[in-house]
Amino acid sequence: MAERKKKEEAPAAATVKRAPRKLDGLDQKTLKLIEGTADRVRTKIDGRALPELKFPTRALSNVKYDAKVGYFELGRGQTARALSVNTVKSFAQTLRLMAISKEMVENNDFATKREAYYVSKNWGDCKFNEQVESDTVMDDIEALASLEGLSREQLRYYPEEHGGSVAGELVVIDTDAETGRPIEIDCTGFGSGSYSIPHSVEHLGFKTDAKFVLAIETGGMFQRLNNHKYWKAAKCILVETAGVPTRATRRFIRRLADDKKIPVYAFVDCDPYGIANIYRTLKVGSGNAAHINRFFCVPQAQYLGVTPQDIHDFKLQDATHKLLEVDVKRAKDALKNDPFFVAHKPWIRAIEQMLSMGVRAEQQALAKWGLNFVIEEYLPRKLKEKKFLP
Amino acid sequence: MAERKKKEEAPAAATVKRAPRKLDGLDQKTLKLIEGTADRVRTKIDGRALPELKFPTRALSNVKYDAKVGYFELGRGQTARALSVNTVKSFAQTLRLMAISKEMVENNDFATKREAYYVSKNWGDCKFNEQVESDTVMDDIEALASLEGLSREQLRYYPEEHGGSVAGELVVIDTDAETGRPIEIDCTGFGSGSYSIPHSVEHLGFKTDAKFVLAIETGGMFQRLNNHKYWKAAKCILVETAGVPTRATRRFIRRLADDKKIPVYAFVDCDPYGIANIYRTLKVGSGNAAHINRFFCVPQAQYLGVTPQDIHDFKLQDATHKLLEVDVKRAKDALKNDPFFVAHKPWIRAIEQMLSMGVRAEQQALAKWGLNFVIEEYLPRKLKEKKFLP
């Protein structure tokens, strides 16, 4: 009896058998990159020469902007790291991180940047002392892979955060880890809840007849549109960005929009943060991470609102807030220094209009006309007029 | 042809017909509270007397702590607000907000606190000038409702943020807004993604055979356990809190654990923030919001790890970080001033052990022994030993 009790209390087997890994084209490419790099190092060593690793230079000096491409790109500058007494540790660490990447691709596993740092604690003298060291090495590897069209997620190093909720006319196709069979996730079936985007979306497929993706800044607005099934009435897909969208959320929208050729409309607060941080990051990426923009920006995004002109058109004046000093600074900085805004006259006019009005308006300010004014009046009118900012 | 083209481009109808609202017991109770309050005011006015509204006093002086109850509770102190020249505006605002609440219950709608503030912009002289004003009035109403066992969500005022992802052996039962029929959301079916908890969870039902709920601090750890289907091997439900859990996440775990009588284990970083902020907020709520703790704390939660003793037991010493000054301050403050820790000797010992070691350890530090050590060794051993902190 005591024996039996013990058995019952023992924890269930802790692991589930996982399906053997089928490597897809991008996985093959990832392995080729890693093996090619390792081979070159090995050949040099076998030939008694000093091996070197070459990485794209990650600095503003090596960034180019082409309005047609639509985002900041990495230039051709390269930095070589030859094996020497001074570089031996980071040289070894780089190869180690790439070796783990190979293993993870083969085993269909992943690591966060933080986990990668901790894994190194078992490397003896080669271990990282601070995470900033492993992050730097990883950024180099990421930049290298980006030249081959491979993202860090493809190397199986996932970001720590995900976030981003989805509801509406979309079926996400994922793979069951245990059986290897495709599974379909119907984003119309979550009721008042929603689908939470995973940390990496590279493996996902999509089925949809939606006419557009609506990227929404605030949780409250997302919940309103979802609870009222706005996605059904307007035949669209709702994505909550919850402020500046994470890598996973941006990549999800990008892959979906590319794959299904549907437009993306951003619905954010009318303030310098909503425009110059949330929207701009979604659309063109950020300047100090040029090597990842090609994966993570959504060049097809357009700005639906709230626009400074909306404050007039929808009589929201008494539901606005005064621009703070930091808002004014951010707006002026965008006008002066940001190649994206500088390249688009309609944006210059809109930001100047906001500065001259001296106020900002949140998307929820539309509730002044009733909680569901946004559904019944605002969005239909904006979508009909189609006067989006670029 | 032009006509036809135009028709195609016109936006779809913006609204979906919603099912007529079936009021449940809590809705009836909410309406009774609002109507009762309004009736009392009306009767006084009809009798040419000055009406008054009474609210529980929301201050530390009106808080009681009973270790058996397990969370800070509101005392019997009341504050009366009689109608006068000075109070007429907030008096009217209070009644207005309660009137909107009634309307929302009847129409199955909701508003965020921010939306409620904006709605007032159409109230003429009665409007709120700043959101802090409407928040204060709403806190009073919330405290009043809490005495009847009604949360703010029941009044249909939802928090702005939600967050909280769920995966594993759980079927969530929601209601289709359009048809009014129940829908089942199977949290084993989302692949590498997950179920995102809505802003309010009062209306949800649950079906599960899970043995426990595992509340996980970090997104990276949640993704690992989900990708490896740990929830299947261990027959459990995974909930990602992403730091300090939101109201919606706490309420979700609480309702699930109450309803299904299953234990809740917290798996967080071993540092004063993980212990004294994340875990304590989950378990007993917070001191300055005593009127909501009865809904939002999870008194059945236990602390699985990472514990200071785990740093020894799993040889994580070289994967720790030094406690910062702010960590030491927070830990000492918990030992001295926090009635929850003060009431539990095992916690005093654990926190003192952490202070004497002078280090903290993240849950991902377990990756030192391999990425999946946490699944294959750590969690099974902890669950078998069942030596949880209270």
Structure, explained:
Two copies of one chain form a homodimer. The first copy, chain A, has 390 residues and is α/β, with parallel strands linked by helices. Helices cover 43% and strands 16% of the residues of chain A. Chain A contains 15 helices and 17 strands. The first copy, chain A, has helices at residues 2-9, 25-46, 88-107, 113-119, 131-146, 219-227, 230-233, 247-260, 272-284, 290-296, 308-313, 325-337, 339-342, 345-357, 373-385, and strands at residues 52-56, 63-65, 72-74, 78-82, 111-112, 157-158, 165-168, 171-175, 182-186, 194-196, 205-207, 212-216, 236-240, 264-267, 301-305, 321-322, 359-360. In chain A, the strands form six sheets. Chain A has a six-stranded mixed β-sheet, sandwiched between helices. In chain A, strands 9-8-11 form a three-stranded antiparallel β-sheet. In chain A, strands 1-4 form a two-stranded antiparallel sheet. In chain A, a hairpin with a 6-residue loop joins strand 8 and strand 9. In chain A, helix 3 packs across helix 5 and helix 4 (113-119) packs across helix 5. Chain A is globular. The termini of chain A are far apart. Strand 10 (194-196) of chain A pairs antiparallel with strand 10 of chain B, so a sheet runs across the interface.
Provide a short characterization of the protein structure:
The structure is a homodimer of 390-residue chains. With 390 residues, chain A is of the alpha/beta class. Chain A contains 15 helices and 17 strands.
Strand count of chain A: 17
* Distance N to C terminus of chain A: 73 Å
Q: Main beta sheet of chain A, described?
A: 6 strands, mixed
- The secondary structure category of chain A is alpha/beta
Please give the most extensive interface between any two protein chains, plus how many residues each contributes.
A-B, 81 and 83 residues
Gyration radius over CA of chain A: 24 Å
The side-by-side strand order for the widest beta sheet of chain A comes to 10-7-13-12-14-15
Mean pLDDT of chain A: 90
Overall form of chain A: globular
Low-confidence stretches of chain A: 1-12
